[in-house]
Amino acid sequence: MQAVEEKISFPDEEQKVLQLWEKLDAFKTSLKKSEGRPEFTFYDGPPFATGLPHYGHILAGTIKDVVTRYAHQKGFYVSRRFGWDCHGLPVEYEIDKKLKIKNRDEVFKMGIAKYNDECRSIVQRYSAEWEKTVVRMGRWIDFRNDYKTMEPWYMESVWWVLKTLYEKGLVYRGFKVMPYSVACTTTLSNFEANLEYSEVVDPAIVVSFPLLNPAKGEEGASLIAWTTTPWTLPSNLALCVNAAFKYLRIKDLATEKIYIVAESRLSILYPSLDPLPYEKLGEYKGSDLVGKKYVPLFNYFYEEYKADAFRVVADDYVTDDTGTGIVHQAPAFGEDDHRVCIANKIIKKGNDVPCPVDESGCFYPVVKEFAGVMVKNADPDIIALIRSRERLVKEGKLSHQYPFCWRSHTPLIYKAVPSWFVHVEAIKERLVANNAQSTWVPSFVGEKRFHSWLESACDWCISRSRFWGTPLPIWHSDDWEEIVVVGSIDELKKLTGRNDITDIHRQFIDDLTIPSKKGKGKLKRVDEVFDCWFESGSMPYSQLHYPFENKERFDNGFPADFIAEGLDQTRGWFYTLMVLSTALFDKPAFKNCVVNGLVLAADGKKMSKSLQNYPDPVKVIDGYGADALRLYLIDSPVVRAEKLAFKEAGVQNVLKNVFLPWYNAYRFFIMSALSSESQTGVPFKANPKLALQSTNVMDKWILAESNGLIKYVRSEMDKYHLYTVVKGLLKVIENLTNWYIKFNRKRLKGETEDGNELDHQMALQTLYDVLLTLCRLMAPFTPFVVEMMYQNLKLALPESEREDSIHYTMLPTEVTEAIDNVIIRRMERMQVAIELGRSARARRNLNLKTPLKNLLIVNTDQEVLDDIKLLEEYVKEQLNVKSVSYTTEESKYVKFNAVPNFSILGEKLGEDMQKVAAVIKAMTEEHVLKFMKEGTLHVLGHNLDREHVQLAREYKGDKKGFEAAISGDITIVLSIEQDDSLLEEGLARDFISRIQKMRKEAKLTTEDVVEVFYYTKQQAQAISGGHQKNKKAQQSSTCSIEQSIVSQAAFIHSTLKRSVYHKDKKPLNAVTILSREHEINGELLVIELVRECLFFSSSVPVNVQRVVTSLDLNLVKHQIQKNNGVLELFVDGAKVALALGKDLLLTDGVVQKEDSGDKAHGKKRKTSDEQTPAKGLKATDSQDKKKKKLSEEQVITEQKQELSSAKQDQQQPAAATSEAKSKKNKNKSEEPQQQQAPQVKKEEVKKEEVKKEEVKKEEVKEASQVVEASQTSEDKKKKKKKVSESAAEKPAPVVVEEVKKEEVKLEAVKEEEPKVEQEAPQAEGGDKKKKKKK
What we know:
The chain is an alpha+beta fold. Helices cover 42% and strands 17% of the residues. It is elongated and about 135 Å long.
C-alpha cells in the first residue's frame, strides 16, 4: 500500500477516478463481466435535451445510478441505456420563439418540412452538456447506444401501440374540453395542466338571469350566478343548481330587485346581516328550480339552441363553498359544463359545441362586439356591456391559484376541441388492480396519491394539433365512416403502394393516401400528431423496437424491475406507462418505483434562472465533488417524496462531517499499516480470519456493526429504502471514526505498553476489514471516494481477489457469527453515558482536558449498569473522570413528570384534548410513579396508556457541585468540584494538547523525535490589559502552569513518551524547529520544539563538546548503543570515553542494552517517540531510513576512514600534531582553560581492529532479533539468515584531534555559543592532509 497525503481535494481525486474509468472502459467492462447473469430491467425516462440538466435531473439520475449499481453488485446484468425525448411542444416552443411564429398558418406558409428541420436541429442542443454532467456525477449509463423518440424505428413501435389499442376498441374521436395553451395553440393533457399554477387576480362578478314566463309570485325574479371567467358568458347555454340545496327568493331592500340564491350563499350578496338587508319572499328546493327557463344574457347562439337550452338543470358538482349556489354552463369551456349539458341533452356527444374562440384564444366574428379580441383581454369590455344591460348584480376581484402553460408560462383556458382519445375510463378498474401489484417508495405515493388519480381517471386525449411529433397513423374518408389505423412502416408501404418510405414524420407522409375499400375515394391522414407523453409512455416497447425486434428479451424483462422519477410524474410518465401497459397486456409497467420530491431554492421557492436563486450545479460539483452532492441529495427528505430547500452549505457539511472523517480514518490506517511494515519488515496483508479471532471488545463491536450493516443494507435496499440505508451507512462511519479509532489509537499504532504485536495486528486487520466493507457497501452511493480508497486498499488483498475497479466487486456477505447483538447493546449504552457526560461538561464549560472526580450512572435496570460497567475504562478515559459509580435508586436523583403525547391524543380525544392534557401535566410525582407501575390512566372519562402519556425525567439533586444529564432512562450525575491535583492535571493535559498541535503545525510525523522546552514569559493578564479570556483560569489561578508541569511530569512523560524541560536546560547546540506563545491559566507560556540533541556534564571540556555535537546524532547513538552506553572517540590522537548518564545525556535518559527477556518473548521494538528514559536509543533503524540519515554501511565506511586517519596520525612526526594544535589554539586564543577529558585511554588503534570479528558476530546476533512477534520459527530462521549475510561491521571509535587538557565549565560554553557554531566543523578536521583524505 502507498502512503496518502494529509490534505485531499475530493474534486481532484474524482477527476483521477474518471481517468481510471476511461482507461479501463469501466462501465462496458462491468457489463461484459456480468454477461450471462439474470437481467435486472430498468427503464430510464427520457428527458428533453433542449435545456440544461438541473438539480431535479441530478437527483433522479443519482437515485437511478445507486439502485442499478446495487443490482449489479447483487449479481445481475443491468443494461443502462440513456434516452432522449425529442418531440413535442417543448421543441416547437423554442422554434416558435426563434422564428417569431405566432400561429399555425405561419408554419404552413413556411412549410412543415422546413419547420421540422428547424426542430430537429435543436433537439440535442445540450446533449453534450447532459453527457458531461451525467458522467461527472459518476453515473454509469450508455450514451452511445441511446434511444431517441424521433428515430423512425422508435416511432414505428408507437404506431403499433396505437393500432393495438384501436383494435381493442380503446381509441375514439370526439370533442372534449381540454386544457388549452393559447400561446402554443395546442391542447395539453390534464397532467400537463397541473404542472404549473400561479397566483392571479381575476374579476369576480354576479350576473342576473331573469325568469322567462315566471309563475305567480315570481314576477320580476332573477336567478343569479357567480363567475370568474366573464369571457365564457357569451357561450352560456344553461344554469346548474344542486338538487339538494335550499334556495331563497328574496327582495333586496336597497334596490328592490328580486333574486333567487342558495340560502347558504347569502353572504355573496350580504357580508353583514345586521340589520337584515333583504326580505324573504319564498323558498325552493334545488330540484324545484329544474326546468325553469330564463332570459339569455347574449343571443349569439339563441336561435340554434333555444329549443333545449337556456334552462335550469341540476348536478351534484355544484357546491356551496363559493358563488351563489347557481353555476352558469358554457359547454365549450368547462369539463363539467360539457358533461352536464350532454347529460341533460342540451348538446349531443360528438357534435360541435358553441365555441366562439379560435386557436389563438381570440373571439370569432360571431361575437361581433368582441371579434378578434383575446378572451382574457375582453373581460373588462364584457363586464361593461353587462352593466349597461342592468344585469350586473355585484362586481369584485378574486386572488386565486390558476393553471398556467408549463412551457409558455401563460394562463390556460379550457376549450372543447376535436381530439383522439384513449378510453381510459373503460379500463379504470384494471388500472387500480395493476397498480396494487407495484411497490412504491414511499408507499403513500402509490397507495394514496396515484391510487386516487387512477380512480378518477378520465379518457386520455392523445392528439396534438402540432407538427414536430410522431404523426397519428390514422387515415379516414371524408365522411369518417371508413377509418384505417396503420401499425407499421411495412403496412403503410403496402397500403399506399410506396416502397421508398424511410421516415414517417409529417413532411414525408402527410400527402400519402390509401385507396378506400368501400368505394369512398382516397383516405387521408388526420392532421394531428401524438402527445409526446404517449411516446414516452411507449418507451418500454419502442426502445427495443418491439414487437418487430427483441421480442424474447422484452417478454423476459417486462414489467421493469425498477423505475424512478419525480413526484410530478404521478400524473405524467408513471401514469402513461401504467395506462398503456394495462391496455396492452393487463400488467403494470414496473414492479418497483422510487419517487423523489421537488428540489427547491434555499428560500423554499421554485428554482428560477431569472431570479438566480440557486447555485450553478457545475460549480457545486467542481467545488465539493460529485460524491458530496450525491450523498447530500440521497440523505435528504427529497428521497421520501418531500420537498428539499437546496442549500450549498449542506453539501459542504457532507464533505466536512462525512468524507473528511472517513478519509482520515482511511489515512490513519494506511499510516499505521506502513509504520508496522517499516518496523517489522513484513508487508501488511489482508487476513480477515485474524480479525475475527480478536477477543478485544472494540474489535468485536465494530465487526458486529460492520457485518450487521451488510445485512441491513441488503434488507433495506431490496425494499428500495435508500433514505434508511444511507443513515445506517453514516452511523457506522461515525462509529468507526469517532469511537473505534479514537478508543484504539495506541493499539492500531502498536504503542501499547505491553508491546503485544498479535493484538496490534488484530486491530489493524479489524480496521482494514471494516474500511474495505464500507467501501464496497458505499460503492453505489459514493462511487468516486470508494474507488480512490479501494485502489490502495486492494494491494493488501491476494492477487486473485483484486479487481481493477471496486465496481466490479460483488456485495459483501455478512459473517453471521460476527454479529454480536449483546456487544452492540453494551456499546450503545456506553455511548449514551459518554455523550451525556460530554453534554454535562459542555453546560459547565469544562473541557475534556479537565479531570473530574466521579461520574454516577443511574438506572433502575441492573443490566444497563452492568453493561456500562464492563466498559468502564473507556468511560473514564473519554470523560476524564477518576472513578465511576452506579446506582439503581433512581428516585433519589430523578423527579418524574407526565407529558401528554399530543400527536396521538389529538385523534383520540378531539375537543377534550386540552382539558385532558392539563390534567396530565398537573399529575403529582406519586401519581406518575403509580402510572409507571400500572401502565393505565383514567382521565375525564378517557382511558389512557403509555402510548398516550410519556414520561419525562428531571434531576432533583445538588446542582452546585454536580451536573446531570438525562437521555431516555439513563441519568448521569457528574461531580464538578475540583482540587489542586485535578486542576494541575487539567493544565498538564492542556499543555500536552498544545505540544501535539505544534507538532502538527511543524508537519512532524509520529516517528520524528523532538525535544520540548518551555518557560513562562510573563503574565498574560499584563499583556492583555487585565482582560482574562478564560473564566476557568481565574478559578484555578493558584496553580501555576510551571508548577503543574513539574508536578505532573510522570503523567506528561507517559503521554508523550518523552520528558519535557525548562528552557534553562536547553543545550547550546539545540536547533529550534518551532516556538509558540500560549495563554494557559492566565499565564503566557512559551513552548519550543527542538531537534533531538545532547546534554553534557560540566566536567566535559568545551572542545570535546564541540567535537561531539559536530557529529551526526545518529552516529553518536549508534556508537553508544554498541559500546554499552559509552561513547568512544579520538581527539587529537587521544582516545576519549564519555559515559552516558554521567558525562553526557540524551534528553530523554540513559541508554541501556536491549533486554534479552524482551528478545526472547518477541516484543516489538518501539519507535523513538515511545521510548522510556532507560531505552532512549533503541529503535533508530527505521527512523534513519525515513529521515535519510547515514545508513549503517555509510557509518562503517566513515569509521574505517577515521580509523585509517588515526593510524596515520600516530605515525606522523610530533611536529605535525603540534602544528595542528597551534592552528586550533590561534583561533581560540581567548578561550578559557579546559578541564582534562575524563576516562582518557591511550590505547593503540590496532586493538580495535583485532576485535573486528567479534563485532561481526555480535552484530549478526542483535540484528537477527528484530523480527515480528507473530512470525513462525521457520520465518525467523529465514530472516536471521538474511540478516546474517548482510550484517554490518561494528563501528570503531571516531578519531578526532587530541583534546587540549584545559578545564572549563559548561557555563563557559554558553558564552561562546556563536563561535561554537562557526568553529564546530573544524573540530572534525585536524590538519589539511586529514581533511583531504576525508
